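Researcher: First entry.
Model:
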Amino acid sequence: MFQFFSKYKILGVVILILSVIIITIIYLILKPKEILPVYQPAEVNTELVDSTVQHVKKYHTIADFSLTNQNGITITQKDYKDKIYVADFFFTTCQTICPVMTDHMLIIQEKIKDDPEILLLSYTVTPTIDSVAQLKKYAVDKGVNDAKWNLVTGDKKQIYDLARKSYLAAKDVPYNPYDLIHTENFILIDKKKRIRGFYDGTKMAAIEQLLYDIEILKKED
């Protein structure tokens, strides 16, 4: 009996290995490809959507913009063309959620520093205070990598409209054109200027999910 099993031992090992390979291939073929949702204004909490776009159910994209970064350089959509990027809204004098959000954005910056496909973009919600010089000081103090991350300032209405109507990242109730209640959300934008995810920028678990989702997004055609 022992001689019988010994004789077919190699054959058994080969069959076992082939079985594992076949099962793995079948699993990979049948496993559904992970795809991130494309968020439309009509699908997002109405508190975060300007009333003028709450009806939009498809084709929503981030509007064009022209603002100035921490180095005094004009930044537009062209700087993010064919890039995946993470956006948020903050202000340099904020003492509540913004410091935590910045620290978490710095973690993302470190993770993507060698990835040419990914960029970061932070809009100040107090542009009258956050001048180019103020943003530059903040960027230097925090360790912002200018090649990966733009902190932008400029026209207040433009920034507020972007928050309310494009990124869906500001509470719209009640609407106040002179003030903005920005959220803690980081917004993941794809290469087609579409919103692909919202993440709580104050929570590390959400940042880990964001980094995971970026990898999913990179695999899209």
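Researcher: Second entry.
Model:
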Amino acid sequence: MTQVKPGSTIGIMGGGQLGRMLALAAAKLGYRCHIFCPEANSPAFHVAHEVTVANYDDEAALTAFARAVDVATYEFENVPARTAEIVSRETLLRPGARALEVSQDRLHEKDFLTASGVKTAPYKAFESEDELHEAIKLIGRTAVAKTRRFGYDGKGQLMIKSRSDIDKVLDITKGAPAILEGFVNFDREISVVVARSASGDVAAFPVGENVHTNHILDTTDVPARVSEVVEAKAKVMATRIANALEYVGVMAVEMFVNDGAGEIVVNEIAPRVHNSGHWTIEGAETSQFEQHIRAICDLPLGPTAARGRVHMKNLLGKDILDFDKYLSDPKAHYHHYGKQDPRPGRKMGHVTWVNPDDE
């Protein structure tokens, strides 16, 4: 039996806002949640049945955590491979370690996507200055250099436009394994949030159109301004990726679209619920968080249709202090993540409008 029935306990590795929203969705379906996180007083702790505060290399704590839950999942993709191995020895781990292995290394991710028949930007790995120059000869000078591991929200990457940027790249990578990606001309960024259950059923949400500011997601709009052909193609690509990974749970696939050519290039995958799917809480028939719980517990997947036009905006840093403005707006759905330190660029909450006024 692959089904985990309501009344069971779900273990979540990671105590941030994604873990918090997963726990809230799980409670709606009758599950208890146990959060494992190194940081005390994490946002997910406020809504969980039980918590464990321990490091991800604490084998004894991980073993006890895994034995206390009926299925385990994670809210971020940088869970160490060793952590996943320990947990999977004692309980179901969904998604499995394969998804972590692929997504944690940009070179492995690009190789996997290419092998899956999905188009990506041209790329070449490098570690030394000589290898970087060879990569530039192959890819071209207008390119993006990225560390292969532990990069998100623009961290560990730099656009190369001139020779002076090369020294900056070497300063960022410091000899660590890195990758050079060719620059992609695109008209818009989109993402597909797709779910795959333990039984292999797949359901994709409508395509969202994303706008990033300083490499951090600012807004998502549904429907995206793409043709029906592009929408269908994007969903097929996301489904192909989920099936190739034998994935269980919700994942997001970020893509670039060239309108004139009708071309889609996959940028990266995120093996978890995703910021660009927050609109689904009020804007879709089933939220991405409930869908993830359904998928990992092998329940029937929920309907994914949008409830109209939807606009989601991230609240970063002190944006969260404007709660009066959002709570006074009858069409706004305000979410506060329970964080107390509104640092610049920190994701503090989000607001969603369903069928917003044109202005």
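Model: Note on the second entry: The first strand starts at residue 9 and ends at 13.
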